[in-house]
Amino acid sequence: MLYFTRWRAAAILLTAFLVCLCAVPNFFPSSVVESWPKWAQRHLVLGLDLQGGSHILLEVDTATVRKDMLETLRDDVRRVLREARIGYTGLAVRGNAVAVKIREGTNSGEALSKLRTLSTPVGGVFGTAGAQSLDITSAGNDQYLLAITEPAIQQRVRQAVDQSIQIVERRVNELGTVEPLIQREGADRILVQVPGLQDPTRLKELLGKTAKLDFRLVDTSMPAEQAVQSHSVPPDDEVLMSASAPKQPYLVQKRVMVSGADLTDAQPGFDQRTSEPIVSFRFNTSGARKFAETTQQNVGKPFAIVLDNEVISAPVIREPILGGSGQISGNFTVQSANDLAILLRAGALPAPLTIIEERTVGPGLGADSIQKGKISSYVGAVMVILFMLVTYGLFGLFANIAVAVNVAMIFGLLSLLNATLTLPGIAGIVLTVGIAVDSNVLIYERIREEVRHGRTAINAIDAGFSRALATILDSNITTFIAAAVLFYIGTGPVRGFAVTLGIGIITTVFTAFTLTRLIVASWVRWRRPQTVPI
Amino acid sequence: MKLLRIVPDETKFDFMRFRRISFPISALLSILAISLYFYHGLNFGIDFKGGLLMEVQSKAPQADLAKMRTTLNGLGLGDIQLQQFGSPREVLIRIAEQPGGDAAQQAAVAKVRGALGDQVEYRRVEVVGPRVSGELLSYGIIGLMSAILCILVYLWFRFEWQFALGAMIANVHDLVLTIGFMSVTQVDFDLTSIAALLTILGYSLNDTVVIYDRIREMLRRYKKIPMPDLLNASVNQTLSRSVITHVTVSLALLALLLFGGQPIHSFTATMMFGVVLVGTYTSVFIASPILIYLGVGTGRDSLTASDDDKP
After folding, report:
1. What strands lie across the sheet with A310-313, from one edge to the other?
2. Is A66 helix (H, G, I), strand (E, B) or coil?
3. Which residues of chain A lie closer than 8 angstroms to B121, CB-CB?
4. Which chain A residues contact residue B251 at CB under 8 A?
5. How far is B110 from chain A (nearest CA, A)?
6. C-alpha Rg value of chain B to the nearest Å
7. Does A453 touch chain B (CB under 8 A)?
């Protein structure tokens, strides 16, 4: 147990040294570290609880995704049957399916085959092979139910979440924050972490809007108030309210002239005549063509600019707009014009996002926490070091060296993993010091025992190590299992705690098995002790 | 240099005799803890209950708690708790979960920010919606259960089943008492409390395994010594280590408790109770003597007597 070949001794020292070396970038300011080669730049990331910032968990509204799918399917059924000149009645969304009844006298076989063309294979990596997007069943009497299959819904939800992540990324980046983290959580959630953000109100406003923009014609055949009161809204129209107070209804066509998806750019600005804040925009080629066509045909009529089902403004078309660009005015402030431009540039979300969790830490508290973490670590370390010296003397010093290397190695490994250091994480490191000291205590107490049983000094040390190491392994594996479970179930700060605890256990076992033994072995070779000084 | 010996060499305490006292006491305390949990309950934090938590620092040298309370109560947000902590400028605001789903929570944050305005600095704002809080709680419980199960399986492989069972009884005992402690002190029970419970679990097992390791070694070496004597010898031999380790762990925890700050205060307080007070007691007075009842080493006396050394 006490014999090390030169190679092994060198390998142990080199490993410990290299791992400790990984912690070095943390001691330099990031401006310095950036000039280093890429592989040397790995460093600890401070968690939001230490550096301040916002953590926001969003959920994609999958119910809306399902509803949209069904409505699109209903419109598709209408289109297909109309194109094939097949008569139908009772086309409607019913529960999780679209129902349609084919008129008598038409060829129901042909109708069914037309409807079947709407079903597409769902697949890819996760889908079951050969799955179809639609499940078409006959309810008798030429009535058909078209249900969207679960794989098709899941695929669409996945796409919607992916798309949302991209759009959220664009919106967050517009805020000009440093290193925001945006990632998928589970099936339908998106985690947004923005370090340094003190007040997330604006971020939440940007994320909370779907930003679905359409340009639609206003139906002027009757006043909107009258349509509401007499419950006679034409089937191709709907009543939308104005965005700004006083709330005012508009009778707007359901058909969309041009949608926000055709925008290529949007910028905030000021109206040259009234110097009100406005948003100017530009269409892509197809959008510009559609806009030009519609405005040519509808000169003198009003059209509505609709954002998230609210009418921002409804200007009258004075002349055809052919250039493919225009401006939106509508009681904006500088801030709201700016935000609308950001939203339009980033694009519309496929479904609304809901904020289901928010945690914001101000920079003052973060700095305080670092300070408190440091003080408590130093105080804890000094007390433990003194206690070990008083209890074990020279061997206590050995233990303290081993524990110091151990802590340095924890920081090295955490840096290597680019791990996040949180306040519970600091607590984890302090506790690891406790565990690391325990491994030394186990060894030394065993040596004391062996001495009492009348062994010679070297014999006792040898036996002490070999017996204690088995126990150290057993006890640390049990703690490691607890840390692993914590890592698996935990989120945020708790996970940070699990990471430091787990890494701490690994380094503790390493130092106990190699470094402490090497130090004691070297001392034994050097002093050839007759008695053990503990 | 004269080195410190907290525990003298070669102690011969009769720990096993204490089982006639320690078992009933533990059973009584466990029942007390469980009934506390049911009748007094835990002070669930927003992680599990949902709602709002705001830590604000007044820009004036002293926070006007009464005025803040009136302002916030005027918002009609239901149950609002204000609590001063740390310096006289710092106030912790807790608002119960708002009815009306996730959007309602966000609306409440905006209201509070609007009402308090620029008079305070917002040091921490946490909002947990109703669905997340439910999930966090079930994840927490699943986590604790699966940790116990994983450790049990490991111990079963490493030792005999009696040891695994003994360790588990000891552990559940630790967790139950710690939950009782949390109920009495009404510390916030949140995600970090689950972390604390798991760490207590790990530490207490750590301790139990060290003693079990020694018991196993003694069982292999000495075939004739009666079980209670063998257990006593094992606990006495590892006593010095147990005490020294707990002194160092409590020194580290004490530093965290005194200087670690509010966010980890409930965590360290719980750890202090679980690791230092309960964990040590359990491994000596519960985990070891219970092996007698679980039938470890039965049939040893019928073995042909070998030439044992004296322990």
Report:
1. A249-253, A237-242, A310-313, A303-307, A213-217, A258-259
2. helix
3. 362, 364
4. 380, 383-384, 387
5. 8
6. 25
7. no
A486 and B CB contact within 8 Å: yes
Give B241's contacts in chain A (Cβ within 8 Å): 441-442, 445
CA distance B118 to chain A (A): 12
Task: Reply yes or no on whether the pLDDT at A426 is more than 90.
Answer: no
pLDDT digits over B96-154, tens only?
A: 888 888 888 888 888 888 888 888 888 889 999 888 888 888 888 888 888 888 888 88
Of the candidates B136, B142, B248, which has its C-beta nearest A434's C-beta?
B248
- Residue A51, chain B, CB below 8 Å: the answer is no
Identify which of B3, B109, B151 has the shortest CB distance to residue A481.
B151
The reply to whether A407 touches chain B by the CB within 8 Å rule is: no
Q: Confidence band (pLDDT; 50, 70, 90) for A441?
A: very high
- What is the mean pLDDT of the segment spanning A375-387? 89
Q: What is the DSSP string of A298-355?
A: TTTSBEEEEETTEEEE--B--S---SSEEEE-SS--HHHHHHHHHHHHH---SS-EEE
Contacts with A494 from chain B: Cβ below 8 Å: 191-192, 194-195
Please name the CATH architecture into which domain A6-52+363-527 falls: Up-down Bundle (1.20)
Q: Average pLDDT for residues A79-96, to the nearest whole number? A: 85
pLDDT of residue A118 exceeding 70, the answer is: yes
The one-letter code for the residue type at A331 is N
Indicate the CATH number of A55-59+156-357 among 1.10.10.60, 3.40.630.30, 3.30.1360.200, 3.30.420.40: 3.30.1360.200
Residues in chain B: 311
Cβ distance B238 to A445 less than 8 Å, yes or no, reads: yes
What are the domain boundaries of chain A? Answer: 6-52+363-527, 55-59+156-357, 64-154
Mean pLDDT of chain A: 86
Helices (H), A117-240: 150-174, 201-208, 224-229
| Ranges in chain B, pLDDT < 50 | 302-311
Distance CA A476, CA A436 (A): 10
Query: How much is the pTM?
Result: 0.79
pLDDT per residue as tens digits for the range A206-223? 888 888 888 899 988 888
**Quick one: pLDDT at residue B301?**
52
Residue A293 contacts B, CB cutoff 8 Å: no
**What are the tens digits of pLDDT across the range A71-82?**
888 888 888 888
Shared fold status for A6-52+363-527 and A55-59+156-357:
no
Higher pLDDT, A140 or A400: A400
Contact (CB<8Å) A445/B6: no
Q: What percent of chain A has pLDDT over 70?
A: 97
Position B300 scores a pLDDT of 62
CB contact under 8 A, B209 and A391: no
Give the largest CA-CA distance in chain A: 111
Smallest CA–CA distance, residue A108 to chain B, in Å, is 46
A260: distance to nearest CA of chain B, Å? 26
pLDDT the model gives residue B1: 60
Distance (Å, whole) CA A1 – CA A69: 70
Average pLDDT over residues A454-465: 90
Q: What is the pLDDT of residue A523?
A: 92
Please report the pLDDT score of residue B86 as a whole number. 73
Chain B positions in Cβ-Cβ contact with residue A390 (cut-off 8 Å): 3-4
- Residues from chain A that touch B199, judged by Cβ atoms under 8 A, are 431, 482, 501
- Interface contact A485, partner B, CB < 8 A: yes
Going B72 to B77 to B82 to B88, the CA torsion angle's sign is: negative
Structure tokens given for A333: 């402030």
Q: Which residue has the tokens 């014609």?
A: A217
